[in-house]
Design a protein that fits this description.
This protein is α+β, with helices and mostly antiparallel strands. Helices cover 34% and strands 29% of the residues. The longest helix has 18 residues.
């Protein structure tokens, strides 16, 4: 009975938190990933399954961002996949059409987005620039605040 109550509370919290998501325009990000509002700066990195050496040479912060992104989408989709390291994360994110790590200037705010393409539309996690702090998510082309 105690476990059932815990599970029920966890489900209620999860449902409530989903309903309280804000569009990106409410946290300084835009509500669309249009070229006009998202200006790329620095290097934009693209990866696929064969880029093991390239992935292993990344900065530790970029590796953390890749792992966090993979774990987020594994959890979001209820998948039974264990992400232990950067290569596990890269393998998961590369299974469809690869993934990108891109720095943007969005309305004067610098961010890094790790994006992958499980279908036709991009999905990503948006980080504060030079940090593993999550600012938001992009799902099916729409940006949400954390």
């Amino acid at each position: 009975m105690k476990h059932l109550l815990f599970i029920t509370l966890a489900l209620v919290f999860a449902i409530q938190s989903q309903g309280s998501e804000k569009l990106g325009s409410e946290c300084g990000l835009t509500d669309t990933n249009e070229e006009s509002s998202w200006k790329v700066f620095g290097n934009s990195l693209a990866f696929d399954m064969g880029d093991k050496e390239k992935i292993l040479k990344l900065r530790s912060l970029t590796k953390q961002q890749i792992i966090i992104t993979a774990k987020y989408f594994v959890a979001q989709n209820g998948l039974d996949i264990t992400i232990r390291n950067t290569l596990d994360a890269a393998k998961f994110l590369s299974e469809a059409d690869g993934f990108n790590v891109t720095n943007y200037n969005v309305n004067g705010k610098r961010v890094t987005e790790v994006t992958y393409y499980p279908g036709e539309n991009p999905y990503g996690v948006i980080f504060q620039y030079t940090s593993s702090h999550i600012l938001g998510y992009s799902e099916d082309g729409t940006v949400y605040c954390k």
